[in-house]
Amino acid sequence: MKILWTRESLTNLADIEAFISEDNPEKAIEFIDYLIKQCERLIQNPYSGRVIREIGLPIKVGNFTGPAPRPSLTHP
After folding, report:
1. What is the dihedral of CA 5, 76, 11, 56, to 10 degrees?
2. I need a labelling partner for 49 at 20 to 30 A (CA). Which of 39, 41, 42, 70 fits?
3. Residue 50: helix, strand or coil by DSSP?
4. Predicted TM-score of the model (pTM)
5. What pLDDT is recorded for position 39?
6. Whole-angstrom Cα distance, residue 22 to residue 43?
7. What is the pLDDT of residue 76?
8. Closest CA relative to residue 42, chosen from 17, 60, 54, 55
């Protein structure tokens, strides 16, 4: 499995980081690292989590494990 970081997803992460940085730059980086780690862990555990049927989409949530490199938040 491979995680595809779209331009929109990277823009969203950068916007979230900028917003949180206004109050606490260290927490902003920590939170973005956490979000990225949770997404990247799907590579090692693609079937982890549970499907949320209540919203009608095949979205999974849960705790994941595995390595999580941090992608660049800049765009080419």
Report:
1. -30
2. 70
3. strand
4. 0.62
5. 86
6. 32
7. 41
8. 60
Q: Give 34-41's long-range contacts (Cβ < 8 A, gap of 24+).
A: 36/68, 36/70, 36/71, 37/68, 38/64, 38/68, 39/3, 39/68, 40/3, 40/66, 40/67, 40/68, 40/69, 41/65, 41/66, 41/67, 41/68
Return the beta strands (E) in 1-76 as ranges: 50-51, 60-61
**Which pair of structure tokens corresponds to residue 62?**
């849960």
Instruction: Return the axis-axis angle of helices 25-40 and 7-21, rounded to nearest 10°.
Output: 150
Distance between CA atoms of residues 61 and 11, nearest Å: 22
